[in-house]
Structures are given as C-alpha cells and as structure tokens.
Design goal:
Number of helices: 3
Radius of gyration: 14 Å
Largest sheet: 5 strands, antiparallel
Mean pLDDT: 92
Low-confidence stretches: none
Helix content: 10-25%
Length: 126
C-alpha cells in the first residue's frame, strides 16, 4: 500500500490563539481556552485524504472539528497507520493526562471526547 493510501487514525495538533466561544454543530456553543488541542480522528478511507480535507479552508461543515478549524490553526498532524479503528484507544490515553472537551468528536462512540486541551504544546504527543 502506498503512503498516500494509508488507513488508520491521526492526531491533529491545533492552536486556539485566543479564548473564544464557537458554535459547534449539534453541540451548540463551546468555550475554548487559549492554548493547544489534540484532536483524535479516524481515517479508514485514507489518512492523507482526511487530513487534507481538514486543512482546506473551503468545505462543507460536517464534523465537530470543522467548526473549530474555522477559528483555529492546525500546527501539524501525527499519522498512526492501522487497518482497525484505534482512535478511541488513543483518545483514552489523552483523557488520562489532558482536559477533554466533553462530547467533542465522539458522537459515534462511547468516549467522553476526542478533543483534548493543554496549555503546553509539548503535551500533545500521542
């Protein structure tokens, strides 16, 4: 399988430049602190295509992350290739050490969140 067709999970490293409240689809208004966030996503159709979509400015608003990325900056992405869904396991690891944004990005699973806050960019490693 070529590198651009890799399936699996990914973690976006995001910076929110100032404290703000953003209306996030069905979640409604969500307060985001100034700082850094790790968003855990799944891309069993291809990591490259999914991350590229997140980086585009023009897109249909579909996922919770789309609303956040209108006001925030993606600093980078970590790709975690796998043929099975691993994003919930990765999210559990973040939940043990970072502050979750309740309900964000996890409407199709039982996780508390798939978005995690830290005041320090160095804490966002998977």
């Amino acid at each position: 399988m070529s590198e651009e067709n890799l399936k699996g999970s990914y973690v976006l490293h995001i910076e929110v430049p100032e404290e703000q409240t953003i209306r996030v689809g069905g979640l409604g208004p969500v307060r985001f602190r100034k700082g850094f966030y790790a968003y855990v996503g799944s891309a069993l159709g291809g990591i490259d295509a999914r991350v590229s979509r997140h980086l585009r400015e023009e897109k249909k608003m579909h996922w919770h992350i789309d609303y956040l990325l209108e006001k925030a900056h993606v600093l980078g992405a970590v790709c975690l290739p796998s043929d099975v869904r691993t994003e919930c396991l990765i999210a559990e690891g973040f939940a043990c050490r970072l502050d979750p944004v309740p309900g964000f990005g996890c409407s199709d699973c039982g996780c508390r969140s798939h978005l995690f806050y830290s005041p320090d960019l160095g804490d966002l490693r998977p």
